[in-house]
Amino acid sequence: MRVHLCAVGRMRGGPERSLLDDYLTRFDRTGRGLGLGPVSEHEVADRKGGGMASEAEGLSRVVPKGALLCVLDERGKVLTSPDFANLLRRWRDEGRGDVAFVIGGADGISPELRARADYKLSFGKMVWPHMLVRVMLGEQLYRAASILAGSPYHRE
C-alpha cells in the first residue's frame, strides 16, 4: 500500500526536514517487507489570500485517484500507536493501493475536503504547527511499521 503525504506549504531544510526524512527512510525500509510504502510527498503552495478553498483544490489535485483519504484534523479520532498500526494493516489487507494523509495549512482543512475524507485522524485536541504534524506523522508511520514487524522500537 503506497502512502502519500499531501501537505500545504513547502518544507525547507532544517531540523523538521531532517527528522521527517529520517522517519520516512526508516518507514520505507521497515514497511517494504510488510507491503507498506513507499511514501511519496506532495506539497501544495500556500498562496497568500487563497484561503482554505484554494488549498483544498490544490490538495485534491495531488491525492491519487482512488486513494483512501485520511485528513489530519483536531476534530478527528485520537488513536494509540498500536491502534494506528492496526488501522494501516486493515487498510492494506482490504486491498487499498494508496492512502493519502492530508495536512492542511495554517487555517486547517476546508470543511468540504474534510467532509469527503474516508477517515479523520487527530494527534490530540491541541493544534500543532503543520510542519511538526508532518514529522509526527512520519514518526507514527515508522512506529506503526515497527509494531507490525514486531521490532522493539515501540515499548508498551
What report would you give on this structure?
The model has no long low-confidence stretch (mean pLDDT 94). Helix 3 (81-93) links the parallel strand 3 and strand 4 (98-103). The protein has 5 helices and 5 strands, in the order E-H-E-H-E-H-E-H-E-H. Helix 1 packs parallel to helix 5 and helix 3 crosses helix 5. The chain has a 5-stranded parallel beta sheet with strand order 2-1-4-3-5. It has one domain: SPOUT methyltransferase, trefoil knot domain (Alpha/beta knot). With 156 residues, the protein is α/β, with parallel strands linked by helices. The chain starts with a strand and ends in a 7-residue tail after the last helix. It has helices at residues 15-31, 51-62, 81-93, 111-116, 130-149, and strands spanning 2-8, 39-44, 68-78, 98-103, 119-122.
Question: How is the topology of this model organized?
Answer:
Blueprint: E1 2-8, H1 15-31, E2 39-44, H2 51-62, E3 68-78, H3 81-93, E4 98-103, H4 111-116, E5 119-122, H5 130-149
Parallel strand pairs: 1-2, 1-4, 3-4, 3-5
Helix pairs in contact: 1-5, 3-5
Short summary of the structure?
By secondary structure, the protein is an alpha/beta fold.
Key words describing this protein structure:
22% strand; alpha/beta; single chain; 156 residues; Alpha/beta knot; 5-stranded parallel beta sheet
